[in-house]
Amino acid sequence: MEKIDGIQLKSEITLADLEKSEGGEITFSACVHKIRDMGGFSFIILRTGRYVLQSVYTKDECRGDFDALTEGEYVTVTGVVKKEPRANYGYEITLSSFEILSKPKEEYPLHVSSKHLGCSIETSMEHRSVALRHPEQRAVFKVAEGVVSGFREFMLGEGFTEIHTPKIVAAGAEGGANIFKLKYFGQNAYLAQSPQFYKQTCVAFFDRVFEIAPVYRAEKHNSTRHLNEYIGLDFEMAFIDDMHDVMAMETAMLRHVVKYLADNYSHEIEMLGATLPEVNEIPSVTFFEALDILGKERAQFDLDPTDEVKLCEWAKKNHGSEFIFVEKFPGLKRPFYAMDSKDDPKLAESFDLLFRGLEITTGGQRIHDYDEQVEKLKRYKVEPEELGAYLDIHRYGMPPHGGLGIGLERLVMKLLGLDNIRQASLFPRDLHHLDP
Question: Where are the domains of the chain?
């Protein structure tokens, strides 16, 4: 236990605690994950907030009513830490006492103590609070924690300011029909599709900003790659030369995140059988070069899921990279804040990043000139008066800037080789899931 300002704090047990306590006694709280009766003794497998630890019970050495002990109970145990190469993490606890803190009313409806949960995604969703007790299921979200922590550490180290922007907004940043509407004290309001307007606003006085927050899309997709609420990792940066500065920043960030995961989440990565990618120089092709690689006519204006898979296969084969940037998309398929290409106004200074067959990022350079932005709004059939607050940032001056948004669940899904994005969301929100 740790003392801060004279207050005793209970802390989560760590592997370092076991190492320090070897040969001595340790006390901690956990959940009884599994009981294996071996005859003269029993293994009691204990699940803490991060680890699954092996303890040994014998009637002669341990005080406590063993017959009252069941899986799913929460206990406080005391025991002697010993090295045991066959146990998880190389340590075992010989119990001297335990205290039962709480008992479950019913048995688990899922096989939480099995090596693999072994149920369908729908069953996992139906019993979500139980499914997440399984070590493998839980490990996914420790990795997600690692991605977020690595992202934040990198951003702060590069002079970005963390911001927290409204999720109830007066206008959608992306426009279109894929926006959730709600009533706000008699006015029409929406759930934010992205923090785009606010990111750009904050660039005017912070230069560099980032946010980690929910994003809402009212898309009626029922696919393995879409959610209606997800966590966006967004950043925006001023004084760029062009969108390649943003792409370089993302490359450096991903390199940092992968190293952060390797350094701090190796046992979750190993448990899940995942392989972290190498992040070296990421190849980049233009949208029309991508169509040429795919052997497709230059008549389409976006990439479909099959295209994304094939482009990643091409990048892996020809450049040894599991990532590939696709840049300079046709402007018709990009938002009104994307800057037109100087070489060809029909193209936008906008890019996607594909990873292991899936788009995980959209970004680019934004328009910073007032007149240019007004003119493009008119081209998009948007009345400038509808976006008065947004245009004010241009009216009063903006530096050249750009940024991007990453879908956390998509990135985690591909890092861990998961089949469905719902497996990377604690409590998914899609067409069929509003509870829990």
Answer: 2-102, 135-424
> What percentage of residues in the chain have a pLDDT greater than 70?
97
Q: How far apart are CA 274 and CA 426, in angstroms?
A: 19
Residue 321 φ/ψ region, left for φ over 0, alpha for ψ in the -120 to 50 degree band, beta for the rest = beta
pLDDT tens-digit profile of 184-194?
A: 999 999 999 99
Q: Is the peptide bond before 283 cis (omega within 30 degrees of 0)?
A: no
Task: Give the pLDDT band of residue 120 (cuts 50, 70, 90).
Answer: very high
Q: Are 199 and 209 in contact (CB under 8 A)?
A: yes
Tell me which of 3.40.30.10, 2.40.50.140, 2.70.170.10, 3.90.180.10 is the CATH number of domain 2-102.
Answer: 2.40.50.140
d(CA 302, CA 309): 14
Give the tokens for residue 28.
């901690």
**Would you say 428 and 435 are in contact if contact means Cβ atoms under 8 Å apart?**
no
Assessment of whether the complete model's pTM goes beyond 0.70: yes
